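SEVERITY: medium
COMPONENT: batch folding queue
REPORTER: lab tech (J.R.)

DESCRIPTION
The queue accepted two submissions in a row. Attaching both inputs and their returned structure tokens so the on-call engineer can compare them side by side.

ATTACHMENT 1
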Amino acid sequence: MKRIFLDWASTAPPLSLAVEAQKKAAIELFGNPSSLHGEGRGAKAALEAARSLLAQAAGAQPEEVVFTSGATEANNMVVASILKKQFADPTAKPGRRVVISAIEHASLWEPVQAMKKMGFDVAVCKPDASGIVRPERLRELLDERTVLVVLMLVNNETGAIQPVAECVAAVRDFTGEKGGRIHVHTDAVQAFGKIWFSFPESGADTASLSAHKLGGPRGAGALLVSSKARPAWLFLGGGQEGNRRPGTENLAAVHAFAQSARFRIESLDANHARAVRLMERLIRAARSIPGVLVLPEDRAETGDRRFSPYILSFAVPPVPGEVFVRSLDEQGIAVSTGSACHSSKKDHTRILEAQGVPKAVADSAVRVSIGPETVESEIDAFAAALSETVPLLLRISKPRA
């Protein structure tokens, strides 16, 4: 039986072009990009070519691209930069504020909670019932002590697209009135290569990207850093990446990352239109089954632009989401209960609860995420499996009289 993979938000099946690009670079470009000999110069040229290619895909400048081991490292680099500024400045007063949305990925949520333990004042901005953070709500949380604002671009569990540019404008308007500068960071992992994204038009100071969400290799990512931003880099020990991220670059992975990004960007419009049609088909099928709740419940069936067409969450209370995942897995279909980084944690329902979803419903949530290579027959097979599985699991879960 051929398995059906509908967990693209956790990772994407590798693109053959990425695998070949990584293999070729590993064999032919083995020199250290920092070395001055021929092998080193060849590796350096390939590294900068990959940097330019990725920058072009994100609408950024090559010098704004810092290669990392992934988005988790990129996110932590931003938080560490703020920490370093705080503790390196003898005039800094405790209680500086960080504003973070309640729906952030764990790789930002947890580091910011650690900042709270170190004396930062952390303000959490909750989304509305659709899972979208409103600029006016975020602005209410800003004050003269604020040094960092964190807001992801596409939520990894619900697909809700956040108005990052509008929120950044609200932050800049505030600082224009009060003076100073607030660093704004956006996690663009679920957006880049899937929906239209331009780093300069987002207005953010920094943005994190990941290779394996695009079909590139794991262990590669990037932090985009605006020329206007002045982070205080924490890592030391080498001059690589413009003294921003020391350590010999993983050239083979970086090369494959850039090739994957170019491939996805070139076909973005066609892939997006196709994903919209598949998602409409998926939502209609889910809503036709008694007991299934699409989350959020006001998500429209036809081209709802508030959401990425690649991600859908639904619930069938009181059936636990884990039960659904296992049942579908036995039928050859891979879905998840949300972020892979949250699946084994106690706060795995944090994002849905933040937008007002009751705990009992959030515990039942399942995420379905599609990709450019998902086909209509896979959506139909999933819908058929769901129509058979839901009544059975509801009967089993029904309390005995």
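ATTACHMENT 2
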Amino acid sequence: MRHRYLHLDPELLQSILAGIDLMRIWNHLVLAAGGDPDEAMRWMRYLQEQGYLDPSLDLDAFFDELERERLIERDEEGARVLTGSGERKIRRGALEAIFSNLRKGDAGYHPARSSGEGTEPLPETRPWSFGDELHRIDGPRSLANAMKRSQGELELAEEDLEVFETEHLTSCATVVAIDVSHSMILYGEDRITPAKTVALALTELIRTTYPKDFVEVIRFGDRAERIPDRELPYLEAGPFHTNTREALQLGRAILERRKQPNRQIFLITDGKPSAITENGRIYKNPMGLDLKIVNKTLEEADQCRRQRIVITTFMIATDPWLQEFVEKLTRVNRGRAYFASPDNLGEFILTDYLRNRRRRVH
């Protein structure tokens, strides 16, 4: 069963569409349409009919170009579908939308702090020693040492040489867990589309920046299950409750078997747990925050902490009481939480209990 919510707020649309190119609009609408190109096309035509897109834009030519570039194609029944290239384009677009303004290192967890034999150069230097690679020599500083030692004569000696320190690079195992419960499309607010955007950006970031790392995706509603990350554009919220505890349990079970020294769960949700699994049966309570559900979920977050699994929560909602739960979960796990409004994924409020800080991330 497909559940969709379509509400076009005129002022919000005008602010979003101003200055945005057609490909970015296309990527967003395809995600909102559950990966259905035909429906995304209908929405783009509707936006143009309502005056939100320039009437002079030739949408037919744009759609034809998508086919020529093989971003979409026709299936056996004549319907348009995304190609592998089209899926990659959406992943890259999500990565650019989320992380183009974030500073390097803000969203990852590769926390080795000591210097040593690695591949990432640090600004600090140390005296050269036998066996150091020549390309790591800091030429200007080495020459300055020689000039100082020889009173202005350019006589370079071994003792003058300095090399750049390098950072230990440690591998990381990551589980990306995305909430597909009914609350993600409830109350007239589309939260599932920005949630998919964040999930796509995270998986693409890991795949491209840390190719030796492990990453797996799970979706959770009444239950939690693994899915291939290529299915992310097609996810839709359904008539499900939010079993955050089982998502963390499954994520922890996956990570327990990994040998990487760093392990983390990215939890993408609107914050409210409303179900737990007990003895194979689902206990549900969608009304408010059920203390039984909350406490069991927090116990699982603490269990993750005990096994040194860091939980980073991306909160796609602005409700204060939902944010309060995420704050508590993050504090128990000593993890991180990024708070974002669904219509402003370019800015997050980061709560980092690893470093005891709270700041705005652009």
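NOTES FROM REPORTER
Residues 103-118, 350-359 have pLDDT under 50 and may be disordered.
No errors were logged for either attachment.
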